[in-house]
Amino acid sequence: MPFPFKTYRKGQLEAIDAARAAFGRGKRFVIIEAPTGSGKSAIAVTMAREAGSAYLLTAQKLLQDQYGRDFPDLALMKGRANYRCLVAPTHAAAAPCITGRKFPECDDCPYFCAKDEAMAANSALMNYAYYLTELNYQGGFGPRELLVLDEAHNAEGALMGFIEVTLSDMQLRRVGVEETIPTAFDDGEFFDFAEDVVPVLTKRRRELEAQLKGAKLPPDIALELLTHKQWLDTQLSRLELLSYSRDEENVEWVVERTTGADGQRLTFKPVRVASFAEPLMFRFGERVLMLSATILDPPTYLRSLGVEPEDAEVIAVASEFPPENRPIYPRNTARMTRHYLERDLPKVVAEITELLESHPSDKGLIHTHTYKIAAAIVKGLPKRHRDRIVTHYGPDGRDAALEQHLKSRKPTVLLTPSMTEGIDLPGDLSRWQVLCKLPYPYLGDPQVARRRELDPTWYDWRTCLSVVQAYGRSVRSADDFAVTYVLDADFSAFVKRQRGRLPGWFLEAVQE
Ligand code: SF4
Asked: Which amino acids bring their CB within 6 angstroms of ligand 1?
């Protein structure tokens, strides 16, 4: 029985039938836009089970684990670093076999056993990063009948992360390369450097290979050299992609330079990844099913991935969550643009103080958009409220903060710039949430700035996407409820401007 549950949620069967019919009509790409909590996972699993063979990709670790728990017939495959090595006290990503050596224990290697299982299984479950690396650069997995992209609005970002190249003085030193990044004022010189450094990195990789294959090294030294070699492998394959794609039509690269105490750092990014999507991602699926709560603007979405509209069909599922259970209140508290931010932050702090007082025993979630805003709020809140706040000061503290909020029996409030996606706070885990600032993509990133210049609709679309994703964190079923407050004074005008892009189930919740 392909459908994993006894009964269907509203819209599920219709979406599955519509997807089957669209594929039946010869569409290669089917996109299902269904709100959070509408049961997208069950749709994905049904379609994967019906296909002769399938890949199912998720963007978030949490979601991948949830799929693995809920649907044990999917062969869960993670990156090598998640599996123990049986030969050395390390994980499979930095194990002696990487240099081509073999040991008797390797027959039972947890990583390779899991990979064998996933290769043989009808449906393999992976995250985007592993899929892209494994299918493009490693052997074993081949094309399948169906490629399912869950949280498909993340496909573009996953490709970007896979393609971009970062070189830093510190990392070059660490792997034993003497070359340093030139001090230049012209981006062209940085691109020349990216080409000139290839033979230097290749030579260093050869030296490391020889060292690793030669005399027996102490395990800690061998591990360190392996890590260096892997870094060189990754950068060299990415530099190769940069080099050949720079001359191609429709591919434009930008470079971002930062300077710190450790020297310079360069990140090369393609402005658009549309021309990479087919060769790096789609070609491993005869048909492609994409699911997301936030497609929002199908033409912009399809363009971002280089999909021709005539090859695709978009299926929209309505929300069954009553709007009165999930109202959005624009509070018009503060102007949050760069120019007014410093001036208006105290107003944000005052508003949040008031909200903490009006929800004295409810857990909540505050989306701050930046760490700077989060720090200013913590600093400005009256001492009596600070104990309720659970926050983190960088990406590393994110999981611990979430864990603390989930475990605490107190009415804690998560204050974070990085949980607009990938977390669920159903029921009492969040009864109120705040969006401090409209989450416009950061224009200090040259890729974002150039992309906006070339395609302003893309910039608006990404902002809408973040707003709708953030909104979806706290109400997870039809009988769940939570209130959302938006403090950014531009929100009402934003909603008017983006009326055609924001979904109806979002607009109906906005309280004028
Ligand atoms: S193949 Fe052997 S050396 Fe490599 S990770 Fe597995 S057990 Fe370790």
From this structure: 85-87, 92, 95-97, 103, 105-106, 109, 111-112
CA 109–ligand 1 middle distance (angstroms): 5
Q: How far is the CA of 257 from the centre of ligand 1 (A)?
A: 38
SS3 annotation, 361-429: CCCEEEECCCHHHHHHHHHHCCHHHHCCEEECCCHHHHHHHHHHHHHCCCCCEEEECCCCCCCCCCHHH
- Label residue 172 exposed, middle or buried (CB < 10 Å: 0-12, 13-18, 19+): buried
Which atom of ligand 1 is nearest the CA belonging to 86?
Answer: 7
pTM, entire model: 0.90
Q: Which helix (H) or strand (E) holds 144?
A: strand 144-149
CA of 115 to the centre of ligand 1 (A): 12
> Pairing state of beta strands 285-292 and 253-260?
unpaired
Measured CA to CA in angstroms, residue 64 lies from 96, 184, 292 at distances of 28, 43, 15
Summarised one tens digit per residue, pLDDT across range 37-56 is 788 999 999 999 999 899 99
Q: Which atom of ligand 1 is nearest to the CA of 106?
A: 2
CA of 106 to the centre of ligand 1 (A): 5
How far apart (Å, rounded) are the C-alpha atoms in residues 2 and 193? 53
In the beta sheet, which residues pair with residue 253? 270
User: Each residue of 332-365: pLDDT tens digit?
Assistant: 999 999 899 999 999 999 999 999 999 999 999 9
